[in-house]
Description:
Blueprint: E1 3-11, E2 19-29, H1 33-46, H2 63-78, E3 83-90, E4 93-94, H3 100-104, H4 106-117, E5 134-141, H5 147-158, H6 164-169, E6 171-172, E7 178-181, H7 187-203, H8 219-238, H9 256-259, E8 262-266, E9 273-274
Parallel strand pairs: 1-5, 3-8, 5-6, 5-7
Antiparallel strand pairs: 1-2, 2-3, 4-9
Amino acid sequence: MPERILIYCDESVERGRYYSQFYGGALVRASDRQEVEQRLQDVKNRNNLNGEMKWSKITENYAEKYENFLSSFFNIIEEGKIKVRIMFRQNINVPPEYDDERVDNEYFLLYYQFIKHAFGLRYWPGNNSPGEMLIASILLDDPPQSPEKFDMFRNYMSSLSDFPVFTSSGVIVPNQEIIGVNSKKHNIMQGLDIVLGGVQSRLNEVHTRPVPPAKRRSKRARAKERVYRVIKDRIWKIYPRFNVGASTATPNGYADRWSHSYRHWNFVPNRSSVDRTRGKRR
Length: 282
């Protein structure tokens, strides 16, 4: 039987102050999905969390509940039952000017690059065994596209199955298994949303500074700081003192893209130029 995986996908801020185009993914083996979803639901039940959990919904009254949920989410990541990938572009890396068609399809093109590279699918353990197959289902959080464009996206994404390295590794991305889903029904996707939102907010200094003309941060911003601290501490537990705005290293080679439980990718488009005026000023 082929091995099956599910990749839950989400995106955050398209244009941020310092970092833009945030994409996130959570990979789960199909055989583990029910157990993982139930473990996360158990945490929600213990904390009386009945609705959908999102970074944007964090408040002072719910901060501790979100901390508890994230602790369980990262426990599962450390066990290797969820693999999380976060991709973003630092604004100092300015992509070249594209024609209108490429700009219009940027959402699709970035997701294609994200799935193609971020998880290291070509390095899955069965890639050297003749006849072994890895079937990847792509689940996107309510893709904001017309049905016609989404059909184009599915055709484009499923063409990864014909990518020579994927073909030789037995990786298949079936067209019919690229679908839009409602994140309210998927606890794994809610955990991804919180981590992706927290990293985006920290890199763009959204919750770390008061919003003018206010001189102090709001209660909600301070609550988000509490929740982000859990994210940062758990990332640092995996990678001590890791700079969340950088790409995760591959000390053992590109196969780490598959084997690592958690990774960041600071995506630099081809033919980018560097404009340091768009970065943070010390």
